[in-house]
Batch of 2 targets.
Target 1
Amino acid sequence: MASTFRGVDFYNLDGLLSEEERAVRDTVRAWVDEHLMPVIGDAYIKGEFPKQLIPGMAELGLYGANLPEEYGCAGLNNVAYGLIMQELERGDSGIRSFASVQGGLVMYPIYAFGSEEQKRRWLPSLAAGKDIGCFGLTEPDYGSNPAGMITTAKETKDGWLLNGAKMWITNGSQATVSIIWAKTGSVDDVKSIRGFIVPTDTKGYTAKDQKGKLSLRASDTSEIVLQDCLVPKDALLPKSGGIKSPLMCLTQARYGIAWGALGAAMACYDEALDYSKNRVMFGKPIGQTQLQQVRLAEMLTEITKAQFLVLQLGRLKDAGTMTPEQVSLAKRNNVNIACECAREARRLLGANGILAEYHSMRHMANLESVYTYEGTHDMHGLILGQAVTGLSAF
Amino acid sequence: MKIAACIKRVPDMELRFAIAGDGKSLNPAGMKYDIADFDGYAVEVALRFVEQNSPGEVVVISLGPDGVQETLRKALGMGVDRAVQLKADEVPFDGMAIATALAGELRDGGYDLILFGRMATDSANQAVGPMTAQLLGLPCVTAVSKLEVAGGRGKAQRQLEGATESIEFPLPAVVTIDEGVARPRLPSLKGIMAAKKKPLEVKPAQLGEARLSVVTMELPPDRPPGRIIGEGADAVPELIRLLQTEAKVL
């Protein structure tokens, strides 16, 4: 029987959650304890995404859980969705990334920019985990500047002809369908960026895993090459238009990341706290030393602040008033404090902290990716700087 | 098949308990609650029977204050059809008082099978199931680890120390479920959403007379700290002597 995670709730935030939100959180928490925790250490060392978990996650309804029931989704509010991300990343960032991409970056754009036919064709099968999606925006030379992309889509009499390359694509090699962003006009025409639904068995589409990762090892990260990849005219997401469309998707995913990173921080704190009470050195538990107590107090403080941040962000999202800049602040802060918590927890664990048997170092390494992807920590700083000064520094 | 599962809301047994100021109840501060472990198994058994022998209905019943509605909704989220709260300000310690209220609710319900957990994980009396069966005049099998139903009869297995006991009985019947039959499923997210729309009826509990009452409650004493009696082979004779004379385990 796996050990049970009981969360971190120093300020009785549970009292601010609805019964349904708590029920969702508890279900995912129990699922992670039972199914993810026993396998994650090995999967991480082997560098493999634990594919066997895909159907179980679908059965619970974890993919696109905040999208409507008529498309086979759970129709949850955004706080409940955030709590799912928190609990998944309490297990591992790679698993949360998988669910984030499937829901926030594949199902969301089909839901937001797709035709009714596209929604009916794809959303139920993605929710059921029968199709796996990936999101092709970033290119080898265009990371923080996605508007500079050079992937093109030329309209022909038979459909759209895609050419280009995408990089750092989560789920890339196992996806059955890919949301590809490309310019339909010239490479300096940012307004011509459109999204396409590309089945990955389309001729001219290839994906291969990027090897040698020291972070997010339990997640597939791939490079995609599009070489005269011809898709039908109805592969175009009709309501997509300009760089704004993929950025809207990123806002969804970043929202989930702000919650997810908090989950990783909670896992590290929980592990450090437990260890500090049981590890005896110089005749007493190390948790009885001032040094480790302050370490734990710092972690608890940052986690508690971050919890309030995402809860209010979720309430704003549910009210329809959340701004992308508010998401930037939460993503930036929560990933940063999670990085700090993971590092401090790893240190508190001493030599044991470098073993896969413990979780903090795995989280610590994972979070370096999370710090960098979906808008780096620095870029979110510039987004906030622009928001408050009205002056763009990028 | 119509099945009732009687479930209890109990404190999370892994949390640290504190005794309340009255010295005979638990301090509710910081307490978390969930369905009692064995009662979760009973719900799972009921759901599987109805899934395999549809059409049917699974009803969950819980006695207690409004907090039990959360536990009932969890069962609804797992797939139960409807729920009944027998409302009482508190859950009496006397199993007979509870069984009287449950029997009143169950008597005319037309249930083929009435399931309980083997025991509630907080009070651990193992009494309410058999008492309810007695009040209803139904056969009762306790601590069942395997259950089959066919042709109006049930077959149950009980795990005894080093042996398995097989029992047959006519329906309707009361069965209390041990772990090992079927691990309770998690409520799915769609199930949690659907639970809000399922019927949850609230009725006043017609409790029987409570003849037992808790007088005091005490936490177990702290374990005395360990003792180092020496090091290496030299310490062995003394260790054996203490294990024989003090710990009395040799």
Target 2
Amino acid sequence: MRFFSRLAFLAAFLAVMILPLSLMSAKKEEKKPSTSSSFPDTYLSQLDKGERFKNPDYFRILAGDGIRTADPRGLFHRVSVAVGEGKNYKALYLARLFTVIKPDSPEGWANRASIAATLGLKEESAASQANSERPDGARPVPLGVLPGNGLQVRPKDTYDWAAAMALVADGLASKVGPNHVVSVRDDVSGIHVSTPQELADLNEELAKDDLPPNGPWAVSEPVRATDVLPNLFSLVSGSPMKEKTTNKGSLIGAMAMAGLAGLQRDAAAAAQASQASGTMLERAMSVPSKYSGGTYTGVFFPGMTPEQKTYQPKPSGEFYAVGGPLPLLWASGSSLSPTVLCQLVSTENLVTHHIGPEDLKKPAAKKKFYHEHLPPLNYPRLAVLRYRKQPGGDDYETSIPLTLFEVMLNGNDLAEMFPNANLMFFDFADDNVHYQRGDLTILPTNGKSGLVGYDDKGIVYTGNPHPSAWLLPPTTQKQN
Amino acid sequence: MSSYYKLIFSTVVCGLSLLSVVSAQTSTGPNIWSLSPQERQALLAEQQRQAQLAQTQSMQIQQQIRDAYASQQQAQMNLRQSQLDYVESQQQSVQSKQAATNAAMEAGRASVAGDLAKERMSKQTDLVVKAANGWQPPKGYSTSGAPKATLADPFAPKPQQAQESPEQSLKRAVEGSCLTLDEEHGVARTTVSCNWQGLTRELQANVYPVLPDGSLLDSAARVQRFLQSVRDSSDKICVMRPEGELVWIR
């Protein structure tokens, strides 16, 4: 049974399981309950198997902050299981959660200190140790896992890898606020240059339509999960690449010149020229790449102190560029928030489409497209995993968009942490094979047709990142 | 066109002259009552002949007018047709030239486009090579596994600690060491001079050990940590004198 298809059975029937909020007596800033009980219906209509989030408890636990209501005994047992399996990132995430749920437990703090030490997180370990000695006077603990810090240990498996992403999200949220965007260079896993055979195949197709031959190109390889963590940065600012369009004035001038040249040469032979020459000239007059310029700044934290680095993507063919920022919504925002506020900033108008709440009441209408710049939107923190079915093959298995907790937690975790819940959950054991093999890749897709965000009225906007459109933190911070 | 009006004019003039002659003869002719019946009959016959002649001439003139008009119409039609033929021939000529021009432009365009395409293709190849050669391998992990953490069970039964207050556990923690509980401040202090191995200076009596994070020994766990630190690490050790002065011992 293919593991991704198992998620089709994610129907979750949760019994009443809300534990007293009094159990959570940790820091105030860590205890804000989520105010929404699900994603808007407009977004769910754009999500494969989105109906699973209509169960408020499923949404709360696997997309929001409901994990804070976990049973402490079950939670501690899952910490010990994770430690036993060498999944130290997952163990640390759960141990942090334990100290939030039971901040008066010296053992909880001591366990957190011990696990943090194994990952080289000295500050977090020392502060947790201090709290273990006087838990009644527990002080805030620095969250040490950040881009460039605390990620030296290779995660044990996909669950552990997902937990590391959650730790990064929370580390940055405590440093810079809840609406941050974590990215990685889109060419971090390599660049694919078109082969002579690929070029020949393409040009054969073009020739069938009397189109002129194309030139070579290079594209980024899909970003592999194993390459992500050591190469993360917090994307703090950026100007996407400029997208060049054909200059009609110069094109007309060039055509006139070309015509004169033809007259001077041989008017009789000119009659043999094909009508495709106009297209040829337009193509010939276009630049080697439509994209140019662009720059962005990433911040990372070697030794807990921030450092900046400026990156510049490179054009790599008529319609391609490499080295742009690939957004990772799982590591952006807070791990306990269903969404992160950010903006798909573009140099040109984007091709988008909208769905408002009123559109759901109408019969299925033809999709309307718009050309516009998008405002800051709430982007659900979902992403897609993908791998080749066979090594070297062209067939891919692609997951539905998943929340981070749907990747990080397995059925046993949920059963023990939420013993009163009748929670049917199918985990992802099989994809550890692909994680270990290194061909598990991540796509920044959280909807059926790409990257989806919604505004405060629940209107959904779909628009996809590309070389001239990047997902950036909002310039004006808005409260979710 | 002018000959046509001249013809009409002369015809009308002739007609009017003939009518005036006839009228003059009629008005100035002999008195009919004075003529003999034969003469009178002859005169009447002559007058009838003249009238018929005039009528015939008038009809001929009208016919001539009609003929002239028809002729003029035909001439106009011929002229219009010739003009149309001329325009058409001109149009054909222009179209022919235009077609030749367009075809020549197409050929020129294709030729120039070919040159530009080659140049663009060359630049595109350079871009691709530059992008591919500029790639740097990603950073990796420095270790493939972490050491195993030690865990304490928060839910394990703790019979002794369950009845112990923090002060009691602190007292228990300092037992057997040269520390004692300063009940006034609720922290541990030295009782007698301690000379632990590794210290460059001995701990004097009545000083308060301080942990690296600035904490005094106010709990059993902190006492344990201090004692552990003295035994096992080379970290600096600090104490606070009763008057508040901090002194580094190691």
